[in-house]
């Protein structure tokens, strides 16, 4: 049974638009993660390591190879203080 030609054009447009949005989302998510793929199923340990890496390097996906933390790391904490 032949495919009606009137339905091929809208189906092609829909397919192209899905491909464009998927590629755009992938590109934007990779740019937000320093060119690395998105992380999935993060637990508390992974989130803690992301915060630590962000405080050390300024990027949540970057890692430092220096075994000594910078001096400002001693006072740069993710714990917020409360006013009493």
From TrEMBL:
Question: What is its membrane topology?
Answer: Single-pass membrane protein
Q: Which residues cross the membrane?
A: 6-28
Tell me yes or no: is Isomerase among this UniProt entry's keywords.
no
Its GO CC terms are: mitochondrial inner membrane
Q: Superkingdom, according to UniProt? A: Eukaryota
List the biased-composition ranges (Polar residues): 58-67, 74-84
Give a yes or no for keyword Transferase in this entry: no
Which cellular compartments is it found in? Mitochondrion inner membrane
* Keywords for the protein's UniProt record, in alphabetical order: Electron transport, Membrane, Mitochondrion, Mitochondrion inner membrane, Respiratory chain, Transmembrane, Transmembrane helix, Transport
| Pfam families hit by this protein | MWFE (PF15879)
Give the region (Disordered) as residue ranges: 58-84
Q: What is its main location?
A: mitochondrion
Q: What does this protein do?
A: Accessory subunit of the mitochondrial membrane respiratory chain NADH dehydrogenase (Complex I), that is believed not to be involved in catalysis. Complex I functions in the transfer of electrons from NADH to the respiratory chain. The immediate electron acceptor for the enzyme is believed to be ubiquinone.
Q: Which family does it belong to?
A: Belongs to the complex I NDUFA1 subunit family.
Q: What is this protein called?
A: NADH dehydrogenase [ubiquinone] 1 alpha subcomplex subunit 1
């Amino acid at each position: 049974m032949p495919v009606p030609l009137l339905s091929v054009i809208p189906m092609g447009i829909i397919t192209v638009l899905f491909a464009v949005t998927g590629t755009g989302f992938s590109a934007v998510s990779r740019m937000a993660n320093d060119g690395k793929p998105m992380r999935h199923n993060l637990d508390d340990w992974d989130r803690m390591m992301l915060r630590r890496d962000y405080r050390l390097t300024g990027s949540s996906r970057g890692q430092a190879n220096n075994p000594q933390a910078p001096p400002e790391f001693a006072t740069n904490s993710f714990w917020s203080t409360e006013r009493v």
